[in-house]
Design a protein that fits this description.
Length: 359
């Protein structure tokens, strides 16, 4: 983090030790102004924020499941690359059989490749980068606990918990769409993490339907409950959970999977998952896409487009920081917010100098 004093910090220094209330008020004023004047450019937002995604397809067991899992993975991969603009180098697809589709499957989903990819992400990720891990496949339960089935040795909850400990304060989304996935909730959950599982416990071991609907939520428009042009993790989870229930009802079957979301250690209650709930957690801030509101600049100038994209990145960071305010030390929150707001102001100055607008 930069140690260069921001304008607000300079003012606080001049005002003396009792200036904390002034800093809070000043940040509040700036954020109020931002809500009125900021515009968010939809192009390439996720590529700018540097989200890194790992899609892991485990053992299919049969050709039917193998094909179903591959279709889910390729649909998700396409959405991340084409719909949300993630850099292709930041999206890794590990599959059971590379020969199934060598154009899109980067390597086999063996234990060492999964953990090795997470190690690489931890080394490469910048401070503001986000991590997404999606497991598609089957889980089994035995004397050693519940595991996600891979070619060769499996992976369990403690393996992912240990791998995630290598990351600093990066927001991590862990989505396990397979059977028995509820056993991963408690070990993997923690600060700066959203954990979503297809089942409530490790004992729900029937094949699941959650994965196909979670992928559909990110690949389509149906999950955007608040119609802000973005799909948050909570929206994708809520959509998929409802579609799973609808499937079992339509088939007149007893529901054997109950998806669960844990947001920074707090388990979402069913009454908190509807469209009327307020946005307040990391699961709400961790979103894909950008607000395509009226007044978004439309330009054919590549330099202006670059500046607009960079501004969108800064605004996305501000949104995510605001969502985490309650879990941060106040001084650390104010320091980081001041830096981002000054960075936003300087970017707006660049945009004006290039002939663009800031509204």
């Amino acid at each position: 983090m930069s140690t260069k004093p921001t304008p607000a910090r300079k003012a606080a220094t001049r005002a003396g030790p009792a200036s904390r209330a002034g800093r809070v008020a000043l940040v509040g004023i700036w954020l109020s102004c931002l809500a009125v004047t900021a515009s968010v450019t939809p192009a390439s937002l996720e590529a700018q924020t540097g989200t890194r995604a790992l899609i892991v397809v485990g053992l299919g067991g049969t050709d039917e499941y193998r094909q179903r899992f591959h279709e889910q993975a390729t649909t998700l991969r396409s959405a991340l690359l084409e719909r949300y603009g993630l850099a292709e180098s930041n999206v890794v697809y590990l599959g059971e059989r590379v020969e199934l589709d060598p154009e899109v499957i980067d390597d086999r989903s063996v234990r060492e490749n999964v953990l090795g990819t997470l190690d690489r992400f931890a080394e490469e990720a910048a401070a503001d980068n986000r991590i997404l891990v999606v497991l598609i496949g089957h889980g089994t339960s035995g004397p050693s606990g519940t595991n996600f089935n891979l070619p060769g040795p499996d992976l369990g909850p403690d393996d992912f918990a240990a791998a995630f400990s290598a990351f600093d304060a990066h927001p991590i989304a862990f989505v396990h769409t397979g059977s028995g996935s509820g056993a991963f909730l408690e070990p993997v959950a923690g600060p700066n993490r959203v954990v979503i599982t297809a089942t409530r416990t490790g004992r729900e071991l029937n094949a699941t339907r959650f994965g196909e609907h979670f992928v559909a939520a990110l690949a389509g428009d149906g999950a955007d409950i608040d119609r802000d042009g973005r799909v948050s993790l909570r929206e994708a989870y809520t959509y998929a959970r409802a579609e799973v229930s609808r499937y079992y009802e339509s088939e007149n079957q007893i529901q054997t999977e109950h998806a669960t979301l844990v947001d920074e250690g707090v388990t979402a209650a069913p009454e908190d998952e509807g469209p009327g709930r307020p946005a307040e957690g990391l699961a709400d801030a961790y979103a894909f896409g950008s607000s395509a509101s009226a007044g978004v600049p439309d330009t054919d100038d590549p330099e202006l487009q670059r500046l607009y994209d960079e501004r969108a990145q800064i605004q996305s960071r501000i949104d995510e920081l605001r969502a985490r305010e309650g879990s941060m030390d106040e001084e650390a929150y104010l320091d980081r917010m001041e830096e981002l707001l000054v960075e936003l102001g300087l970017k707006n100055r660049e945009i004006r100098a290039a002939g663009g607008g800031t509204r």
